[in-house]
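I had to read the description of the data format several times before I understood it. In essence, backbone conformation is discretised, so a fold becomes a row of integers matching the chain in length. I therefore recommend that a typical entry be quoted early in the introduction. For illustration, here is how one protein appears when written out as sequence plus structure tokens.

***
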Amino acid sequence: MCNNCSSSHLVSSTTLASTGPRIHEKADPNVKTTVKEMHEYGKYLTSVLPKFIQQFSVYKDELTLYVAPNALLPVMEFLRDHTNAQFKQVMDVCGVDYPSRANRFEVVYNCLSIRFNGRIRVKTYANEVSPVPSLTGLFNGVNWFEREAWDMYGIFFTGHPDLRRILTDYGFEGHPMRKDFPLTGYVEVRYDDEKKRVVVEPVELAQAFRNFEGAASPWEQVGYVVLIIP
């Protein structure tokens, strides 16, 4: 699970003709897609799916498609099945937290086309109450990825067959990758030598916690709340 999704994702080993993409018969790992070809491929996808793709961007050799949550399933199905795409694998599902936005979470899908030796990124958005459709019906491998995003960020995926925590312990409160989550957490887990078992206790550390009350946005810090242990 990554927070910034900074790994390189080239679109594919695809060259474009005026009427659409002209695909290499064999994927050549030594052929690098140019920025111009990425722009042309982004325009092609947008023209084919004008109702679903809101926009696309090319930045640092990476092609990204931006879609609304209700457009995620048709776009991902197209990328998986279309002859000029063949993105059969979702290699990762990432969450990114932008607390100042109305839809604070970005959900990022990094897709791989083995047929054309290429990658593409798809982004959608959500918040604490608006869900994202699960892709488990299209890609079996996203099951645990979506569970990680739920566990770390609280992003809810509708239609997931088993959406429960996967990284944190049983009874964990909150979602630790959110930027307003306390750095120390709320509880600590330790082994009690007297009780001869693992115990869960409230954190007892004299540390300044970030205070967001009264701020214009959830991420605008207005001061510190200092926890003093008597």
